[in-house]
Amino acid sequence: MTAAIAATTQTMNAWADDMRGPVALHTKQKLLPVEGEGGVIFPPTYAEIGYAIDSLSDGRRVAQIDSVGAQANRMEPLFKKARPGQRENPLAKLVPQVEISIGNERTVSILDAGHRLGDAIVRSSDLAEEAQRAFRLFLDSGDASGLAKLAPTSLLFGAWDSRDTQAKLPRIVQSVIRAWDVSPLRRSAQYNPPVDYAALEVFSDEEKRKAEGDTKNPLAQRGFVHVPAVDVPGGVVVHGGIYRDVTINLVALRQLDGENGEALRRYVLGLALVAAVEPSDGFLRQGCLLTPDPDAASRWDVVGRDGRRTTIALTRDDALSYVTAAAERFGVGRDRLATFQKERAKADLPTDEGKKQRKKA
């Protein structure tokens, strides 16, 4: 095996600057259930379809364990400041901490907003005009400097201002977890109330008879009668391995421009490297706690324009050192506290009331 090349500052700068440089960085990480190889894991359950399982032409079935969007939502809070009583997060100083006050001392971090800078919570605050200007600057001239100063993670994980300017930010960091060659399982369960509420005259025997076994009945939903759960999804057994694929799109990164574009691209690259190499939280949901496979070391590859792959010795320390210098040079945007405004939210509604509010504004 060819020795891995070092991730020097010069090498990483070239990833951000060289328009003829490689197209992507990629790693494939094998994961294991905490129960060990062959343990049952639970994929996410979706309305109408249950588990998202695709059948390949060779008969194998592939299950989505964590989607691209879900992975992005798990990675973005890596940059969130610690709450009172928590240990300080050193990564928080790398991005502006933008929060929106809802009232009664409650705030929402933009790092928790599912649509990032394009989220309704932003349009419903006094941050709306600044966000719109940043999107329009990018849309009209390709200048991403306003976005990088206000919400750089929207550049990392993508955003679409679909309700306003229509500006689209492609994902620079993309991660997904899939399980290969799976066998779905089914399970059944039974809830038994601790007492007979009909005998206690809380309701009648006839009401009890109608409610038992009917999961939509209010008495069943409130836990007053016996309720079976029969033949529901029971997880999957994985025969072909669980893998997390992480890609950093260098082509999309190098398309970012604006005032001091070189410093901007290097800053965003540094954030992307940190997000990609930082150890991820393997607790995806109940019944799905994953860890890296210690016997299957992952590696980072640089993917050239000709498709050739070169292994790079990229570490967490390399990424932190690079992004710290890049952030200092570019200048991290200022922290701010915006305010939620109910009238803005009403004006944004797709209703007659919303149209009246927009006309009034």
Summarize the structure.
The chain has 13 helices and 20 strands. By secondary structure, it is of the alpha+beta class. The strands form five sheets. Strands 1, 2, 6, 7, 12, 15, 16, 17, 18 and 19 form a ten-stranded mixed sheet that branches.
Which whole number gives the mean pLDDT?
93
Shape: globular
Total DSSP helices: 13
Strand fraction band?
A: 25-35%
Can you tell me the residue ranges where pLDDT is under 50 for at least 5 consecutive residues?
Answer: none
Helix content: 25-40%
Structure, explained:
- This protein is α+β, with helices and mostly antiparallel strands.
- Helices cover 31% and strands 28% of the residues.
- The chain has 13 helices and 20 strands.
- The protein has helices at residues 9-17, 68-75, 120-123, 128-141, 145-150, 152-157, 205-211, 218-221, 250-254, 261-277, 316-330, 342-348, 352-360, and strands at residues 5-6, 24-33, 40-41, 45-46, 50-51, 53-55, 61-66, 98-103, 106-109, 159-160, 168-169, 173-180, 182-191, 227-238, 242-249, 283-285, 288-292, 300-303, 309-313, 336-339.
- Strands 1, 2, 6, 7, 12, 15, 16, 17, 18 and 19 form a ten-stranded mixed β-sheet that branches.
- A hairpin with a 2-residue loop joins strand 16 and strand 17 (288-292).
- Helix 1 (9-17) crosses helix 10.
- The chain starts with a strand and ends with a helix.
Secondary structure layout:
Blueprint: E1 5-6, H1 9-17, E2 24-33, E3 40-41, E4 45-46, E5 50-51, E6 53-55, E7 61-66, H2 68-75, E8 98-103, E9 106-109, H3 120-123, H4 128-141, H5 145-150, H6 152-157, E10 159-160, E11 168-169, E12 173-180, E13 182-191, H7 205-211, H8 218-221, E14 227-238, E15 242-249, H9 250-254, H10 261-277, E16 283-285, E17 288-292, E18 300-303, E19 309-313, H11 316-330, E20 336-339, H12 342-348, H13 352-360
Parallel strand pairs: 1-19, 8-20
Antiparallel strand pairs: 2-15, 2-17, 2-18, 3-14, 4-5, 6-7, 7-12, 8-9, 10-11, 12-15, 13-14, 16-17, 18-19
